[in-house]
Write a structure and sequence with these properties.
- The structure holds 2 protein chains of 2 kinds.
- Chain A has 5 helices and 7 strands.
- By secondary structure, chain A is an alpha/beta fold.
- The longest helix of chain A has 24 residues, at 2-25.
- Chain B is flat, with a radius of gyration of 24 Å.
- The chains are: A alpha/beta, B mainly alpha.
Chain lengths: 175, 169
């Protein structure tokens, strides 16, 4: 008993050290995942962002076919990096809609001209309120929505070439 | 190269962007045509643009108080217990991040409409999980937070009692 009491502080220190060291070598994930995955898309109706392209409402995600919902902005640099991947997904026949966060029509029009336009509809979210309703914590983020309007997958950050296959698979699984 | 560093605009606080930008310009300059020390110093002095700023102003209630002081007080109390999702160590009341401003606007608008703070908190927890609140609800995962202090107090009392008894002897 006495021997145990003698070694206990060292054991506690070693345990604490191990906890702190493991945190140093394997830092915790810094992204906040949406708790909406597996739940129905919240109801929203956003006005059109650019002339000639309709706005976006949650109803268009309940038409029986899975779609991608891309949360982006013209002022977001990783959104430029993921644009080619979105164009590829579009070319594979996957419909993509978008929510533009705190943006203006000329800025978005310029962004689409420079980086390509994979979107069927773009809704304008002036105060990020739909973004918050989605549980999205930044731009860019992409949600896979199945044909009944259920959120099945969230991709945080720009879609990289190596992520395309998993998104295609998720869309296939959502059918 | 810089694109790769900024994977998610929401996650990059402004100072980090600046540092990365400076380091990058230093490294790029060095590899391309060796501009010498003056070039490097000049590159470091150049102002770095704020690259991930929304182009529209924040919502009205992001930085404007509610007219009713009682409502503003309850909105403020709630904001202090909600975590900024971008700068994760700060509450949305303290943070200057754009997303925190949008969340403040959301809180104030809903309080103004007469919604209870608890229901706004629940709404956010349904979207971001318990992580969004600094006042996490008691659950299977969080019960040690409540019980540990009581347990530690008990242990402390027991140690104190035994040491006092030894002294009196």
């Amino acid at each position: 008993m006495k021997r145990f009491a003698l070694w206990a502080p060292l054991a506690i220190f070693a345990l604490l050290f191990a906890v702190v060291a493991s945190g140093l070598f394997r830092p915790a994930e810094k992204v906040v995942r949406s708790a909406m995955v597996g739940k129905p898309l919240p109801d929203f109706a956003l006005p059109a962002m650019v002339p000639g392209k309709p706005g976006l409402s949650s109803a268009s995600f309940r038409q029986g076919k899975p779609r991608l919902l891309n949360v982006f902005a013209s002022w977001c640099i990783p959104c430029i990096a993921e644009a080619p991947q979105l164009m590829r997904l579009r070319a594979m026949g996957i419909p993509i809609d978008a929510i533009a966060i705190r943006d203006t029509a000329p800025a978005i029009a310029g962004f689409l001209r420079r980086n390509g336009d994979p979107y069927e509809r773009i809704g304008s979210d002036r105060a990020s309120q739909v973004q918050l309703a989605l549980g999205s914590s930044g731009v860019p983020e992409t949600f896979v929505i199945d044909g009944r309007g259920i959120v099945v997958k969230q991709i945080i950050g720009d879609i990289r070439p190596e992520n395309v296959a998993e998104i295609v698979q998720a869309v296939k699984d959502a059918r | 190269m810089r694109f790769a560093l900024l994977r998610h605009a929401g996650l990059v606080p402004a100072p980090t962007v600046d540092l990365d930008h400076r380091r990058m310009s230093l490294r790029n300059g060095g590899s391309r045509n060796k501009p010498g020390m003056t070039g490097v110093v000049l590159a470091m002095l150049l102002p770095t643009p704020a690259v991930t700023q929304p182009v529209t102003p924040p919502a009205h209630y992001a930085n404007v108080q509610l007219a009713d002081p009682a409502k503003e007080a309850s909105a403020r109390a709630l904001m202090e217990t909600l975590r900024c999702l971008v700068c994760q160590g700060q509450s949305i009341a303290d943070s200057d991040a754009d997303m925190a401003a949008d969340m403040r606007a959301l809180v104030r608008e809903r309080i103004e409409r007469g919604e209870k703070p608890a229901s706004i908190r629940d709404w956010l927890i349904a979207r971001y999980g318990d992580y969004v609140t600094y006042d996490p609800p008691l659950s299977g995962l969080t019960w040690p937070l409540w019980l540990a202090p009581i347990l530690l107090l008990g242990v402390g009392g027991w140690i104190a009692r035994s040491s006092f008894r030894r002294r009196t002897r």
